[in-house]
Amino acid sequence: MEEKKEDTGQTGTEPEKKKEETRQKQKKGGFRFILAMIIVGAMLPLGAPTLLVCLGLLPALVALLTDTDPRKSSAITIGFLNMAGVAPFVAELWLSGHTMEAALAIVRQPVNWLVMFGAAALGQALLYMIPPLVNSITVSRMEARLRVLKEGQEQLKSVWGPEVATSVPIEAIRRKVNQ
Amino acid sequence: MVQTEDHRKNSGPSILLERRVEIFHQSPLPELDGPAGPAFAARLKEEESANLMAIVCTKSILPRLDFVNAMRSIDNPGILRFREAGVVEWPGNNSSRFVIACDRPASPRFWLSLDETRPQMSEDAVNRFLVAPLTNALSELHRIGVVHGGIRPDNIFWREGSASPPQLAECLSVQPGVGQPVLFETVERGMALPLGRGAGEHIDDCYALGVTLACIIMGRNPLRGLNDKEIINLKLEFGSFNAIAGTHHLAASHAELLRGLLADDPKQRWTVSDLELWLAGRRLTPKSSDSGKRANRHITFAGNDYWRLRPLAAAMAENVPEAVKLIQSKAIGKWLMHSFGEDDKAGDVEDAIAATDKSGGKAAHYEDTLVARVCMAIDPIAPIRYRGISAMPGGLAALLAEAVYTGENLQTMGEIINSQLVSFWVDVQEKKADFIPLAQQFERAGAVIEKTTFGNGLERAVYTLNPFLMCLSPMIRDHCVLSPRKLLLALEQISGRQDRPVEPMDRHIAAFLIVRDKRSELLFASMAPSEPPARRGVAMLTLYSELQYRYGPESLPGLAAWLYPLVEPAVARFLSKPLREKIRRQTKEAVNKGDLTKLLALVDDPKSIERDENDFLSARVMYSNIKAEIEEIETELSQRQNIGIALGRSIAAVISSLLSIAVLAVILGRILLKAMG
């Protein structure tokens, strides 16, 4: 349990330092600070799961640190799926006695890494596919709207004449028509 | 034999006058032609044995419609019985004519020409066969207030020895005095142009009867071979009686009769009452001569000596430059006072000069006006004589109508009315009160002439002064439109012509409707050429649709088609193109139906116009909004690579969250299942 605590203490100091550095550099690390505090807080009572979680959630941590989006949508995407990938092993650890050995047994299996990091990769894949897809859909919708609007303009012109696009007084239009 | 021949003429194709008289337009009666136009055989539709004659007014634009009803009431053997009058469509030339139908005379014209010489009739025969029946006829005319204006030997139908009395010809087809030789007119009426002689008075007919009787008694025209001027001069110099019958040996009773009837002084002239007294045997003593007062000393004018006023006035009217010199020398006033003792007339001359100076100063035609006024002051009962026009004030209206019809002397007529010569003429009359309405009428006409707006001017004056004049618009003058009721029919008839004018409206029609239909001037002001086309077209359509509603007919497709191009600018007022096209389609349907009211409702519906305007303004706002949105989208699309990226990431985050929640739920479920065993 002490090792766990040490491990947890070791693993907990790095993000804290990193967060401090980031905070000093970017002055916008509130979310990261809170996350780091949660991680550190979780590490204290649960040494084995913390090891597993800390190792399994490395992609999420990387995403969190590299995401420049203020809404942190990339970090959320990768982080949530990464968590979903880690969660079965945390449950397994929990059900199998909640020991460091069990945790190490899980860590030693490459397939488990594949699952945890693969889930994070799925998040990255979502990020890779969905924004361009939304971009494409939105652009085509805007272009369609543009076409509709231009058609509307043409229809207005066909009904009311080119004067509908001007601010010429009505009497002047009538005079012109009668000439 | 005559009857048979007359009946034979009542055959062939005919046209109906007022649904009761058949006119056989291929059966002319040249022997009955009058100054108004040719005569044709006619008969009553319901009484085929009644032979009528129809005078077709081809030369007269002013038949005396004001006396049609009065003449209906006359059934006198001495006057051709009036039967019907009206406008008929004359075959052949697609035009209408005014026609007067009356009984066909039983006898031929008494004299075929005024130049013929006939055996003298006995005193008794003249009295019995001519004076008595003609007095009776004159009495009848006097009773209904009609002046015949055409009594002369060749306008009386009678055969000597016939049992039937002499008959006076019809007198409604022309104005009194038109066609009447100067010989049969009083001096003052004779000085006037035929159409400018005015309605005249009963005593003018008595004068004509006097000359007619003189001719018959003498068996010849006593002044044959003399021209009009010579006849007037002779009458002025010697008086009418002396000029006409002075050299002839007359029976005492006839001398008395003619002296009474040929008196130049209207107050002295015999009337029909005097004639009746004379016929009853009462002897009157008319004045011997009334050639006018003679001066103590003559006055020299243009190299001639004048002793009397009327010849001087006549000479002055014919030589304006010399007359001006005489007037400006003040010689006339002195002559009037010293040689005539006519201080009043001298005062009138001074008034004439002062009035001319005041109204016209030294303006154009000052001299003509001055001489005209001075002549009136010298000879008050003579006609107004101005720049070659000579007319009694009562005849100016007819003369103006003629001037407007022919286009000649228009300016002169306008000047006569505008320079208030009529008012001055009335001022110098002995009985001013009788003529004040006339003066007022001409003052009103003068005010109308001065207005130059559409529907005013001379055109309006001519209809104001001639209440029974047909519309003289060049486009419909051949259709004898006497009332607004017939106007649309006439326009419909000419609408199909290739040479029709661009618009079914002109100053004449406008003036005619303002006067006859009591229309507002404002409506016609909108039709002036200076107004916008849409306004003009709608104004015309408004007018004609109302006339159609009021007088019919229900369908006027020709007129509607004529008006359509004029109201097209009104259709173009609609800003919406589809609405415009829709209205055009509907207007074409209304045009085909000839429904002017519907046409007007389509092109001039204020609610539709207002709605169209509001829709247009809304469309403008919409266009502006669309434009703004387009600009916004285009700005966004200029950085298309960034569009939706943030949203896409958010969506990815949501998907990721949902997936993870699902996984966690499955795991949690498995844990729970395991825990439950």
Number of domains of chain B: 5
Q: Cα-atom Rg of chain B, whole angstroms?
A: 40 Å
Q: Looking at CATH, which topology of the largest domain in chain B would you report?
A: Transferase(Phosphotransferase), domain 1
Count of helical segments of chain B? 28
Most extensive interface: A-B, 56 and 51 residues
Order of strands, main sheet of chain B, comes to 1-2-3-4-6-5
Which of globular, elongated, flat, extended, rod-shaped describes the shape of chain A? Answer: rod-shaped
- Quaternary state of this entry equals heterodimer
Overall 3D shape of chain B: elongated
Radius of gyration of chain A: 29 Å
Number of helices of chain A: 8
Terminal residue distance of chain B = 151 Å
Number of E-state strands of chain A: 0
Poorly predicted ranges of chain A: 1-12
What is the assigned CATH homologous superfamily of the largest domain in chain B?
A: Transferase(Phosphotransferase) domain 1
Topology, element by element:
The complex is a heterodimer of chains A (179) and B (677).
Chain A: H1 2-26, H2 30-43, H3 47-56, H4 58-66, H5 73-95, H6 100-108, H7 110-160, H8 170-178
Helix pairs in contact in A: 1-2, 1-3, 3-5, 3-6, 4-5, 5-7
Chain B: H1 2-9, E1 15-17, E2 21-28, E3 39-44, E4 47-56, H2 68-72, E5 82-90, E6 95-103, H3 123-144, E7 156-157, E8 167-168, H4 187-191, H5 202-218, H6 228-238, H7 240-245, H8 252-261, H9 272-279, E9 299-301, E10 304-306, H10 309-318, H11 320-328, H12 331-340, H13 343-360, H14 366-378, E11 384-386, E12 389-391, H15 393-406, H16 410-418, H17 421-427, H18 432-450, H19 458-465, H20 484-494, H21 507-516, H22 521-525, H23 533-551, H24 557-571, H25 577-593, H26 596-603, H27 606-637, H28 645-675
Antiparallel strand pairs in B: 1-2, 2-3, 3-4, 4-6, 5-6, 7-8, 9-10, 11-12
Helix pairs in contact in B: 3-5, 3-9, 5-8, 10-14, 11-14, 12-13, 13-14, 15-19, 17-18, 18-19, 19-21, 20-23, 23-24, 23-26, 24-25, 24-26, 25-26
